[in-house]
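Lab channel / #folding
Pinned by the channel admin:
"Please post every new chain as: sequence first, then the structure tokens as a reply. Keep commentary short and put observations after the output so the thread stays searchable."

First post following the new format, from NK:
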Amino acid sequence: MGTFVLVHGAGSGAWVWHKVAPRLEAQGHSVITPDLPGHGINPLPMAEVSLDRYVGCVCDILKGQAEPVVLVGHSLGGAVITQAAEYCPDRIQTLVYLSGYLLANGESALDITQADTESLLLANAVFSADQLSATFRPEALQELGYADCSAADMALVRSLLAPQALAPLATPVQITPDQAGRVPRVYITCTQDRVIGPAAQRRMYTALPCERVIALETSHNPYLSAPEALAHHLHELDHGDPSAKTLR
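Reply from TO:
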């Protein structure tokens, strides 16, 4: 069985994978769920949080593995795994974008969001006085990203979701065809997403074609609302099972 490195998105932490990781481990996989710098138990002053810091954290993990890994990036984590693939492509078996920012060279997550007419993200963002970070309007949180999540899930989210540094969202990735471009990509699209709209997701995985596109009928955070289905698809990807649902 393979190794999965699961990279969380904005304002989150390793805790988001608490339902998915044990399901993959039960299938015999090794699973690593880091807190990116400035998140969870990996503290860093907000002014020092950057895309490069995120990527450095992930690359350090990749270099410590005996074999190439399946590298999964959720949401903003998509930008992180893209840049990580530029720096250490030989350490990655497959890049998996879970409703993630699949960015072209010179593009940032903010570029995608500003053009996304289906997204509720910017309309519900609350920026800090120093303009270094943002949170979301509490009353809009469930509609924004957790519409299909349980009351228990929402209690966990509200207790752990933290401000997100803006710098990583605004930083363009710098990638080349000979490095990041040679790593196989898979996209898992969430068809009820209001953070990254389905049309924006489609534009990204069409502009940068993926070997497979898998659809989940969920909101932005299926690791909470559909962990069994998500773990099943990830397991099949590592197995190369051709029976998994694929969009063309």
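NK: Residues 3-239 form a domain with the Rossmann fold fold (CATH 3.40.50.1820).
TO: also worth noting, The first strand starts at residue 3 and ends at 7.
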